[in-house]
Amino acid sequence: MGDSMRATVCLLCAAGLLLAGCGRALHSVAGVAENARTATEQMASTSEASNASREVLIYPEASTLRGGPSLALTQRYETREGPDGFMIYDTETHTIARIGNQTQSGLTMEQAKKAADALSTAASHAGQ
Description:
By secondary structure, the chain is α+β, with helices and mostly antiparallel strands. It folds into two domains: 24-66, no CATH class; 74-128, no CATH class. It is built from four helices and five strands.
């Protein structure tokens, strides 16, 4: 029993050392997870739009029966923590947001919140 416990501890220590040295690989996993999340949201949004258009074909007055606004799964601009501070992530373009020529990264939490609010306000006014 002692030998199997020792082998287990050695394996866990080796795995910990490998993971500690593979910070770049963990960022890759985070990127894949983020891409999967946004792809899932896009599929849900596309499915909702497709269902609504089919409803209209079946029953043209279906849109008048719908209650409430359509479902918004995420905000366009999200505040995220990056390697050098906070950043504003654009969920539509899957890039770090820009204001003019300035990339919105390396910010403090307060700066990031203000920038995200400004970008969201500008995007909502542009859509009107």
